[in-house]
């Protein structure tokens, strides 16, 4: 089911007693939490709404809430986050598991248990996980792809009466790595900046949206592969001057070259390769664009030289800036 399906269920009071929410799109997960909270009127939430982090407080309080009927209301909502007992490493006591399984099979009328498993790797062999999977209404909030993020951006801007330049949209996507959640975080600044013109420009994005570290690493790797020594060295100096630790910067650069090599060996769509590597498909798209411009042998050579630079940084008292400059001169 989707968030829209959940809205319809809430509007029509057609609410199952158990939900399992999964996914890794932070903004959508937060929206889901707000929707579940809205089931209980604000004045009744103190008595009929509770949220527990299993990792912090365990399960006993949640079970106690779920075994009692709603207090002068139609529903009680209990949200449970971080349910590590559904993974291979977490567990419940025998009494907790017995109580939870009993509540899943015979819920108290009006009580809703909402389990937020987010992007956890669930152990489907476990008895309790099987029971939840079998009985729960599943709300999957997977990360949006680049096209969906773009559509969401334009829908929001249309509703607010704003427009965005094509170059500005492309740079925004690059700077937030096509993340829907990060795009929503940055949008209020851009809207305030363009309050008079109603037009978000490339300059506004450049001035207001800080590049993700992965985007900075992509830029630096691009300069290295293009052989632009002066620009690469200047960028490296600026990043260090702005507080980026040389070892971390080297690790980001090494990671970017490793990603290029990994993507080069993977067939299939950007989404399939992204899933295999555990990264956003947008990064795969950028990597494939780079691989069309640079010989694979050059990428391998760069990876090995950057790896050697990291070893020297960790084992010798050598100025990192000197090492990077030497790397650029010799690459």
UniProtKB/TrEMBL annotation:
Q: What is the lineage of its organism?
A: Bacteria, Bacillati, Bacillota, Bacilli, Lactobacillales
Keywords assigned by UniProt, alphabetized: DNA replication, DNA-directed DNA polymerase, Nucleotidyltransferase, Transferase
- Residue intervals of the DNA polymerase III delta N-terminal domain: 19-139
EC number(s) recorded for this UniProt protein? 2.7.7.7
Q: Name one Pfam family in it.
A: DNA_pol3_delta_C
What protein is this chain from? DNA polymerase III subunit delta
The DNA polymerase III delta subunit-like C-terminal domain covers: 216-331
The molecular function terms of the Gene Ontology recorded here are: DNA binding; DNA-directed DNA polymerase activity
**Keyword check for Transferase:** yes
Kindly state which reaction or reactions the protein catalyses: DNA(n) + a 2'-deoxyribonucleoside 5'-triphosphate = DNA(n+1) + diphosphate
Q: Name the species this protein comes from.
A: Fructobacillus durionis
According to its UniProt entry, the protein's GO biological process terms are: DNA-templated DNA replication
Gene Ontology cellular-component annotations? DNA polymerase III complex
Family to which this protein belongs:
Belongs to the DNA polymerase HolA subunit family.
InterPro entries in the record: DNA_pol3_clamp-load_cplx_C (IPR008921), DNA_pol3_delta-like_C (IPR048466), DNA_pol3_delta_N (IPR010372), DNA_polIII_delta (IPR005790), P-loop_NTPase (IPR027417)
